[in-house]
Write a structure and sequence with these properties.
single chain, 267 residues, alpha+beta, Aminopeptidase, 8 helices, globular
Amino acid sequence: MPSNVIEALLARFRTSSEPSQPEPSLWESHLASPMEVHIVDKQDIFYKKGRVLAEQAYRRTWNTENLIDGNDFAVVVSQKGKVIGNINIQLRYKENFLKSEKFFGKEHWNHYFNPSSDSVAEISALAIAEDIPSDLSRPIMMMLILGILSLCRLKGISLLITVQHEFLIRILKQGLHLPFIRNEQIKRPQGEVPNDDYWNQKTSPRLYYIEPNSYPVVETSFSYFCYLNTAGISTVFYPRIQQKEQLTYSAFRKSYSSEQQKLDLAV
């Protein structure tokens, strides 16, 4: 991938000591309508719309002709019917290994974590529309992350995995304060990988992990809500994942407290 393309991607999220001042016309026009966050399964029309955005972005940036799917859910951000952000999540089942396991080996996270096999998931296909103001890239990322964290709580996911290049993880860690951990034991793919610029770089993408229910992640997600409200960015969440039974707040709170206690004991 040419260095100028990486610089262009980084520029959309780059921070400085003084916040940038977006042109009022662009910023205000995008604040006029609420941002909609769709949390959906793969049968939903917005799953398909999000995949179109991701496929276009990966083709344009990485020369990827066939973006691997195999996912179960998507978080898709739209505004006035136009899709402007996408991320996918794949759950792990006994008979269905994660994409990263095919590239880096079965249960590669065991070097660092010991979760149950059905509480692990992988996120991929992150994409943001190219024609939005750069100042909105970070808020859209926040909405995608908030959607993923909601899915993790709904599906009982305690460990998230992603295969990324270091420059994007730098954005997620420094710009969005997400404590990703890199696998230092496995540095290169062990299986056959797609033939595109994402994988054919001099430096290969690496394995990263994050615990979605940990205190630092929960605290960071709360700061996202505060920022979006303070910045005047109206958001509407549309979770459309079917549940077996109605979730009451008391049941949610009990589960939430139990998970926090487990995390406190693990620290």
